[in-house]
Design a protein that fits this description.
11% strand; alpha/beta; 434 Repressor (Amino-terminal Domain); 6 strands; elongated
Length: 306
């Protein structure tokens, strides 16, 4: 029987989290199962065949994907196959059970929370650091209620008033993670055109810029503006969210949003390309102090009360 993995000691603190973190815990269970399989000297296809799974099923389990975690019976079967020790098995099964506890966002209607968006919110809730680049709207975690309402009404012109308000409620609940004692570091880079594009009306925009100014002063928030006169900025053509997690053997994740779906990248080579692109963009943008001055100037010059 192989010795218990030292990784397990790093997992035990997650058992005492007060707020469920199902997305993080599914990923942790999957990563640990993959590591234990490799320690046992089995390739993924070999393990899947021995456990009576398809290769695709084991791949999903190890990637921590899907709205629900794997079943306890499936995880027990894998751990038995790998000859896992009793304590290690106990910790992983406890994590698995906690992964089945719904996060607050999973109480919203599935129409508002399709599986890809459920995963994003869960990843943001679990991240130690979030980097984001936006070219059309203020990043969701930094929006005011009125600005969010204008975004939703613009993007979903046929939505009922009830649906609009539920979407606003969801976004406001999401941004509460920046108020937690253990809030993630947020590094947002925003194209200057976002500040100039009027959504709703000028009063809404003034309030939104004032909120950005307030948030930019927080120690865990870094805000940079890419000015319009930087014509050769190495900006991605679409919004990018880059998520990093604390020492738990989890990969960085890049989130790329489309109109009705999203792409999640976890391959190290792919995520590294986006990290480098965001680094270059940060070098080309105004620094945080200059960005704060640009926000103040735009709020006064373009949206001052008359």
């Amino acid at each position: 029987m192989p010795p218990e993995s030292p990784r397990i000691s790093r997992l035990e603190p997650y058992l005492s989290r007060t707020e469920p973190a199902p997305t993080l815990l599914k990923m942790l269970v999957g990563v640990q199962l993959a590591g234990i399989r490799e320690d046992a000297g089995l390739a993924q296809e070999q393990a899947a065949r021995a456990a009576g799974f398809s290769a695709a099923k084991l791949s999903r389990i190890e990637a921590g994907k899907g709205r629900r975690p794997p079943t306890e019976a499936d995880v027990r079967a894998l751990l038995a196959l790998y000859g896992t020790g009793e304590h290690e098995t106990s910790v992983l099964l406890q994590l698995l059970r906690r992964a089945g506890e719904p996060g607050w966002w999973q109480r919203f209607d599935k129409r508002l929370m399709p599986e890809w968006f459920d995963r994003l919110v869960g990843l943001q809730e679990a991240a130690d650091a979030i980097r984001t680049f936006e070219i059309q709207y203020v990043p969701g975690l930094l929006q005011t209620p009125a600005y969010t309402r204008a975004v939703v009404e613009r993007g979903l012109p046929t939505a009922t008033g009830r649906e609009v308000e539920r979407r606003v409620e969801l976004r406001m609940r999401r941004r509460e993670l920046l108020e937690r004692p253990d809030a993630p570091q947020l590094w947002a880079i925003i194209d200057e055109s976002v500040l100039l594009r009027v959504l709703g009306n000028r009063e809404i925009m003034r309030e939104q810029l004032e909120h950005l100014i307030k948030m930019a002063r927080l120690p865990h928030v870094t805000l940079q503006i890419v000015p319009l006169d930087v014509t050769n900025a190495s900006a991605p053509a679409i919004p990018v969210t880059y998520l990093r997690f604390g020492g738990a053997d989890l990969p960085d994740v890049v989130y790329l949003e489309h109109i009705r779906s999203a792409t999640f990248l976890e391959d190290r080579d792919e995520t590294e390309e986006y990290r480098v692109a965001l680094d270059r963009l940060a070098d080309e943008a105004l620094d945080p102090r200059e960005s704060l001055a640009r926000l103040r100037d735009t709020a006064v010059r373009r949206y001052a009360e008359t």
